Amino acid sequence: MTIRVVIADDQAVVRAGFRTILESEPDIEIAGEAADGAAAVRIATRLRPDLVLMDVRMPVMDGIAATAELAGLAVENPITVLVVTTFDLDEYVFDALRGGAQGFLLKDIEPDQLVEAVRMVASGQGLVAPAVTRRLIAEFARTTGRTRRPGPPPGLTGRERDTLALLARGLSNLEIARTLAVSVSTVKTHVAGLLSKIGCRDRVQAVIYAYEHGVVEPGG
């Protein structure tokens, strides 16, 4: 099945680079491009791609607002968004994930990692680059004013709680399976179960939930 992608970035050279990398893959097609967030919303709404590769800092409408327009919780038919930005913009990670982004990567990612990320996020697996996960944890530790909420619902099993904690540290399904000494299919079952119980749409939202509810502690 072909993955249809819209690339949104205000730099033409970046769009061209992403297009070159992704179009070389037989299962990925570039459906369109946008140079600002407002155009990204219009184009993605019209074309309904499988995924939007979204920059953060763009004119007219930034990538955070565009992400919320396309993938926010209030959107009836959300479009999958994978945010790609530079390392010095990591203060936007939390807002991007809150806005509905299902992945967050850095622009210095290797080409093969970008391709893998597109495939993973398009298939419904949220993804946050390990380096970004560490910075996200540091943000939770540093920022004041975010009220910690009560722990997760008591309905979570011990395995689901363990899975949530490992997921919150940025581990993939395969890495979680190895850590817990179970099969990948078992991990997928745990993830599906815990997402349903905590009311999160995807594993990226579950990462935020885990830190907000004390399942894992920043720096722990």
From TrEMBL:
Q: Which CDD domains match?
A: LuxR_C_like, REC_NarL-like
- 4-aspartylphosphate modification, residue list: 55
InterPro entries in the record: CheY-like_superfamily, NreC/VraR/RcsB-like_REC, Sig_transdc_resp-reg_C-effctor, Sig_transdc_resp-reg_receiver, Tscrpt_reg_LuxR_C, WalR-like
Alphabetized, the UniProt keywords read: DNA-binding, Phosphoprotein, Transcription, Transcription regulation
Looking at the record, the residues that make up the HTH luxR-type domain are: 149-214
The record places domain Response regulatory at: 4-122
PROSITE patterns reported in the protein's UniProt record: HTH_LUXR_2, RESPONSE_REGULATORY
Q: What's this protein's name? A: Response regulator
User: Source species, please?
Assistant: Sphaerisporangium corydalis
What high-level taxonomic lineage is stated for the organism?
A: Bacteria, Bacillati, Actinomycetota, Actinomycetes, Streptosporangiales
